[in-house]
Write a structure and sequence with these properties.
Enolase-like, domain 1; Uridine Diphospho-n-acetylenolpyruvylglucosamine Reductase, domain 3; 3 domains
């Protein structure tokens, strides 16, 4: 199927992108295109105009900003996965980016487009929630920083306001004794997460001193697994503790587990403890090496 007719506009700066958004009500932004173009071709979206922001230099790059990594919205999944700084400071994010789609998707898809699209089966939102990252939204009157746990609000819905553009993602850099990991049960065709789990574990003298866990893929948007976190905090960093804590993820899922023709809600819920346990074990192992 072909997209409905639309006007194509290209912005060379954030300021110009905001002017074009104001002048073209209902317009959609185009970055890497891997989220928007399929919607256009299926006519699930039919905007009067598409504004290409893919060449705005100020939205690219990975840099340290205090205790955070600031990752520009147009940074691709492949660039994140290949970054030595991301692998060192936020291993779970590099791991998730390396598992997005296929090489074509990873080399064109961007972190900004990914989080703005907010697909429930996407990988990066789950990691950002677990790492307590944030999204920098640029509006006509300036920037605001939105914690990832508050940014994702539902199925393909976010806290972005009208005319706001995702400018960057902020990720706290890991310190000594802290490890993070991401694991997923991937759909064999799309590589989307049927179940995704991200974990951050701080290990002190063999004990899990701090635990953060998020799940995605099987719920409307990425969310923290607080029952798992409480169950593992203060426990030995060992397999039995990880398994016991992971089993508590069922308490965090609630009644809105997603199901489809590929995997039922019941199956996804049954698989969740498996992938949470794997993420916890991998994160704790990395903490021991940090």
């Amino acid at each position: 199927m072909y997209a409905a007719e639309f006007n194509y506009l290209r912005a060379s700066s954030l300021a110009e992108a905001h002017r074009l958004l104001a002048a073209n009500p209902g317009a959609k932004l185009l970055a890497g295109g891997h989220s928007l173009i399929p919607l256009l071709k299926l006519r699930l979206a039919a905007p009067p105009a598409v504004i290409d922001i893919g060449r705005i230099a100020e939205l690219r790059g990975i840099a340290r900003r205090g205790d955070d990594l600031r990752i520009g919205a147009l940074t691709t999944h492949a660039e994140i996965a290949a970054s030595a700084e991301v692998r060192k400071s936020a291993a779970a994010l590099a791991e998730a980016a390396a598992g997005v789609g296929d090489p074509a998707v990873r080399n064109r898809g961007t972190i900004g487009g990914n989080v703005a699209h907010a697909d429930p089966a996407s990988d990066l939102p789950t990691v950002l929630v677990a790492l307590e990252g944030a999204v920098v939204a640029a509006g006509p009157k300036g920037e605001r920083t939105i914690p990832a746990a508050e940014f994702f609000t539902g199925v393909m819905t976010t806290a972005l306001r009208d005319h706001e553009i995702v400018a960057a993602v902020l990720v706290p850099m890991a310190t000594r004794g802290v490890g993070s990991a991401y694991t997923k049960f991937a759909h064999p065709a799309s590589r989307y997460a049927v179940v995704g789990a991200a974990a951050l574990v701080a290990v002190n003298k063999g004990t899990c001193a701090e635990v953060r866990v998020a799940v995605g893929g099987l719920v409307p948007h990425a969310r923290r697994a607080s029952a798992v976190e409480r169950a593992l905090s203060g426990q030995p960093a060992e397999a039995a503790s990880f398994a016991a804590a992971a089993a508590r993820v069922r308490d965090d899922l609630g009644s809105d587990v997603l199901g489809d023709i590929f995997a039922s809600a019941e199956y996804r819920a049954a698989m969740a403890p498996v992938y949470v346990k794997r993420a916890l074990a991998a994160a704790a192992a990395r903490a021991g090496l940090a």
